C-alpha cells in the first residue's frame, strides 16, 4: 500500500531514494497524485490528502503547516514538504498491519471448543471406520468392498470444515473490520463483544469533543461583548481563553489593542481597552469590583451551570456587559450512537472525573442510562470491576487515565484520538473519532459469531449425514454406496461451503 520510493531534500536538491532508506527528520517532498512514504509533520505547503486507507473517511483532509500526515495516504491537490517523524515499523500503517496480523493469527475461545470437539471426534470416527470394516467382513462382504467403505468413512469425516469454521470467519471479519476502521487486536475480542451487556463511556474526548467551545453569547450587544472578551482573552493561554478567541475568529470579529493584562488567580482576568478596565471571570470577580448583577443574570447563570457550561461574566469598568458560556460539547454522533446501543439492548454508563453538575448535564444530553462523576483512574477501574461482576462490560475511552479501566474491562475500546497507552491497552482500536464505529464493532461481532455458528452447524450436520452414507448403510436397503473418490469430493465441498459462507462477511454493512 505504501510507495516504494520517496523524494527527499539533500543539500537543497531533490533525491529519489527507496522508502525503506528514509530516516527520521528527513525532509520529504510530495507532489499531487503521489502517496506519502512515511509519517510526518508538514513544514510547508498546503494540500488535501485522501486518508480513507487509514480512517475510512471518504472526504480528503486539509493539511497545512504543522498538520500530521501518514504513510500510504494520497496527496490530491498541492505540493507538500514534510519532516519524517515515524518510519518503518513505527508508522500508523505498520501499526495497523501488525494489529490485523495479530488478530488473524490469534485463536478465539470458540475455536478452542472446536479443537476439543475435533480431538474427541477423530478417534470416534476411526473407531467407526474399524467397526464398519469388521461389520461388512462379518456380513460376508468381499475384503475390497469392506476396506473401501471403511476408507470412505475416514475420508468423508475428515474434519477440515470443522477446523476451518472459526479461523476463516475470524480472518474475513478482521479484514472487513480494518476496512471499516475497526481494528481487533485479537480474535477473542470479536467473540467477547457479542456477550457484552454494559457499555461504559469516558466523557472527555470520548462522548465529547475534548476541548471547550463557546456555546452562548448573552448580552444586549453580543458583537461588542465578543469583541471586548476576545481582545482581553487573546493575551491568555488558558483553554477557555482559546475557546473565546476561536469563536471570535469564526465570527470574523476584529480584536482591539489590550494593555495592562493581568491574570487574577481563582477569579478571572482583566485588561485595559481604550482606557476602560475590562474584567472577565466569575461572580466573585464581579462582587469584588462592586459590579451589580441583576436577578435575570443570576437566573441565566444557574441555567447555564445546570447545562454543564462554564459562564464567563464580562464587565467594562463598573458596567456589566454580558455572559459568554463555554463548554466541552458532545460529539455530533454521540446521541445517535448511544441511542443505537440502547436499542440493541445494551446498558450505557458514563464515568468521568468531572464534577457532579457537569456530569449530570452531559449524561442527560448524551442519553446514557446512568453516570458516575468525580472518578479518578483507580476509581474507574474499581467501578469496572463492580459492574463486571454482574455481566460482561465494554469500556470506551481515549486517555492515559482510561488505560486501567480499558485493561480491566472484558473488552476495552479505544477511540481514534486515543493516547498510545490507551491504544496498547485496548482490545479494539477505532481508527476514526466516531462513536458510531462502537456500534459497528458490536454489529460486526454479532454477524461474525452468527457466521461461525452457521459454519459449525453445517460441518457437524454434513458429517452426521455423510458417515452413515459412506459406511454403506443405504446399501442394506438397496440404496447407493459411496466410493472413497466421491467421499473425498464431498469432504472437499464441505470445506468450500464453509469458506464461501465466511466470505459473505465481506458484504457486511
How are the elements arranged and paired?
Elements: E1 5-10, E2 13-18, E3 27-30, E4 39-44, E5 47-50, H1 52-55, E6 61-63, E7 68-69, E8 74-75, E9 80-86, H2 92-105, H3 109-138, H4 143-156, H5 160-179, E10 182-184, H6 187-195, E11 198-202, H7 203-207, E12 208-219, H8 222-233, H9 239-250, E13 259-264, E14 268-273, E15 276-281, H10 283-288, H11 295-306, E16 310-316, E17 319-330, H12 334-343, E18 347-351, H13 356-366, E19 370-372, H14 377-388, E20 393-397, H15 403-408, E21 411-414, H16 420-425, E22 428-430, H17 436-470, H18 484-503
Parallel strand pairs: 11-18, 11-20, 18-19, 20-21, 21-22
Antiparallel strand pairs: 1-2, 1-3, 3-9, 4-7, 4-9, 5-6, 5-8, 10-22, 12-17, 13-14, 14-15, 15-16, 16-17
Helix pairs in contact: 2-5, 3-4, 3-5, 4-17, 4-18, 5-17, 5-18, 6-17, 8-9, 12-17, 17-18
Please characterize this protein's 3D structure.
47% of the residues lie in helices and 23% in strands. It has helices at residues 52-55, 92-105, 109-138, 143-156, 160-179, 187-195, 203-207, 222-233, 239-250, 283-288, 295-306, 334-343, 356-366, 377-388, 403-408, 420-425, 436-470, 484-503; strands at 5-10, 13-18, 27-30, 39-44, 47-50, 61-63, 68-69, 74-75, 80-86, 182-184, 198-202, 208-219, 259-264, 268-273, 276-281, 310-316, 319-330, 347-351, 370-372, 393-397, 411-414, 428-430. The protein is elongated and about 120 Å long. Helix 5 (160-179) runs antiparallel to helix 17.
